[in-house]
Amino acid sequence: MSFALANTIGAVFAAPVRWLAASIDAPLRLWQRLTGKGGMIAFFLMPNMIVFGTFVIIPLFINFAYSVTGGNELFLTDRSFVGTQHFDRLLTCDNHFDPSSCRDDLFWTAVWNTARFVVVQVTTIAIVAMGTALILNSKIPARGFWRAVFFFPVLLSPVVVGLIWRWILQRQGLLNFVMIEMDLTPVNWLIERDWAFVAAVGVSVWAHVGFYALILLAGLQAIPRDLYEAAEMDGTRPARVFFRITLPLLWPNLLVVIVLALIRAVQIFDEVYVLTGGGPGTSTLYLTQYIYEIGFASILRNPGLASAASLMMGGVLIVLTLGQLGLQRWRDRA
Amino acid sequence: MSRIATFLTRRRGDGGRWHWTDVVTWLWLGAGLILMFGPAIWLVLSSFKTPAQLAEFPPTILPYVSETVAVTLNGETRNLPLYDVILSDGSADQLAELRRVGTVAQMIDPADPETVIKVPITDRRPVREVGFAWDNYLKPLEAFNFGQYLYNSVFVTVTATIITLITNSMAAFALSKYEFRGRNAVLLIIVATLMIPLSVNLVPLYSVISTLGLQNTLWGVILPTVATPTGVFLLRQYMLTIPDELIEAARMDKASEWQIYYRIVLPLTAPALAVLAIFSVVWRWNDFLWPLIVLSRKELFTLQVGLNTFAGELNVQWHYILAMTVATMIPVVIVFVFLQRFITTGIAGTGLK
User: Fold this and answer.
1) Residue boundaries of the structural domains of chain A
2) Which of A239, A269, B128, B159 has the fewest CB atoms within 10 Å, counting from its CB?
3) B190: which chain A residues are within 8 Å (Cβ-Cβ)?
4) Which of B232, B308, B347 sits opposite A159 (nearest CB)?
5) What is the CA radius of gyration of chain A?
6) CATH 1.25.40.10 for domain B137-350
């Protein structure tokens, strides 16, 4: 889009904003005279903080209250205190590695499914994003076009992603047709447990890898050119250049990418839910879907249990996010 | 042609020989092109196929429609499907199908509709040409609430984006241009909310929404999404680069603080506002889990929730599901085509998603 067009669009938006803003200037001037600068600061912060408070901070406290109260009533005043009952139910296992030995076998199925998904998906994303970024950073014609190619699925909605792939992966779908053409045995992608896992990982990598490749590409482009020129003059082999220059200097960005991907993978829900619905059986049931089903969808609705599970997931996410913030600070200083 | 050939065979360096890294590069790019665009193109092509064609295996690439012919029979004009038929004497002909009984079809020659010819169905193939089954798109728009879903999605997206831009820019202004006690505390609270994604707060957030009477309203979908910590940070970082001298000069000229915000700082923040606006539009358009929880009345569904429900209810009617998936994808594709450059540089610059 040309900048002239952008300016025109901007001007069209700006006119009514200006008019509206000007119309409330007089009362705000009065407010400023009465309360001084402090009153104005409060006024600027108020809308955002009210929304934050109402929809993030207060719910967080309610979350703790829910996790120690029982029943399926929604309003806290109707709920009775049950102490750590929900946490006991979630955490009691003869053997934590075997979901069927747990009091809440579905929760541990979801935990281990999620763990397996996170490890495989994040590793795949890191490798594919790295390869894509390296190739996009090399001397190729029409680099902007290729960057757009890998970025395209990132914008698609999870529902669209899920449905596109449900169509392609079905028994008589395009992928099985291509496999038959290549003399491979067709596979019931969404019906066999292990293949459904492969499909869930593959589809989520497809949908997100472009985003991470872009971050890595930005990191690659920030590496000073003269380092490579010096290496070339010394006749250093490409593999050595990669391990001695590229990788060490890209490492902070790669770590940020891995942590960001971890945070998102732990919460995986939308596209897999549309693709497999958690099935076949419970083979692609992940934590967020567990929380959703226990909290809202199932006939055995138990908001307290869902809250307890989501707090435990929240704990993992807080550790990961703190790691991400620390890493980003370290990267930006380095 | 030769210029395209040189373009396509251009190698790393100048005129050097093909290196194995060139091969890897082009294989990777080629695979990327097919894998990233292929599924979406396959979706669009499939969405124009008739149900009968969708059930075909092996599938055809392009959508076809069967040709029909108008035949007047006993004073009644009917449209009958046309077939290429191999007759029992070995000759080929084009006949219209009157009816089918088991494995035998009763067929007639359009030129001579009185004589019925019996043909085994294995000896005939439908006459067809490339064409689009527009009904896939038109029927769901009439029979299901897709117009309503579209309206709901647009309303949620536009309203949420406007509120996001206003509240986030006001907060960012206060946090970047004023020194006050508790500023760091406010910043810390905003950072803290980064750690509490929606999926952790689902149950209590729903109880807050219910207490406020917002369950089953579009506002219940909109409000929890507008206070994005990333938005506040993005705008604050940008506003920090605006020189304070501008603001001091405006104060000398007796500008009110509100005027400083909307006449000086806001226009200078336009590029960052544009990035946030684009992201907000894509986020809100694609939101799924939260609308799925808040909305249970069909007439309030957003496009994403409607599409998912629709796909669940019509498990076998893929021709409708595919068409509606394409329709849901169109706005995002438009954003992609026109604003892709803004978004990719935005991500590279801010790490926002």
Assistant:
1) 3-67, 99-333
2) A239
3) 52
4) B308
5) 26
6) no
